[in-house]
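Board notes (copied after class):
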Amino acid sequence: MKPMLQCLQELHSEISNEINSFDGYQHAAAGGERKTAQTHGESTRVNPSDASARLVEEGLRRSEFGFIDFRDSPAGRQACLQGSTLAVWEVMLLVHSYKKDVSAVAGHLQWPEVKVRTAVNYAEAFPEEINEAIAENETTDFEALKRMLPQAAEFVPRKAAKN
């Protein structure tokens, strides 16, 4: 019996091939309007075929991992936890800082444990994606952050005044 991930990847490949030969693939966009793979590709600077394949891949991942969604960010497209602003890699930073104590992270975030466990499971299934995001975060300095987020302001702690 094949592992679930391998089956999903094979299915993704088959669906991608079918989508590549089908013009006009549509998915529902925010606000209820319809968005074709062509216009999605244009808005994300990806060709329609690649945009379609990505949407299928993300749909497969959503169906396999509860609480996972995908969002565009200044750093690129990221797997995020539904109902929060956190990307999976950010949750994993907390998991590592709490020495992999999922319960402690859940308490810190005031989330159910299953939501944190979903991030851990996703990170275990896609370690390269998550490790790459963590590494990019570690190498990003304030100047790079300011280019991505022009409104960013650097906070410099002041020394406490002596009485």
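Comment from the instructor: Helices lie at 4-20, 37-44, 48-64, 88-97, 102-109, 113-125, 127-139, 142-148. Residues 18-34, 37-42 have pLDDT under 50 and may be disordered.
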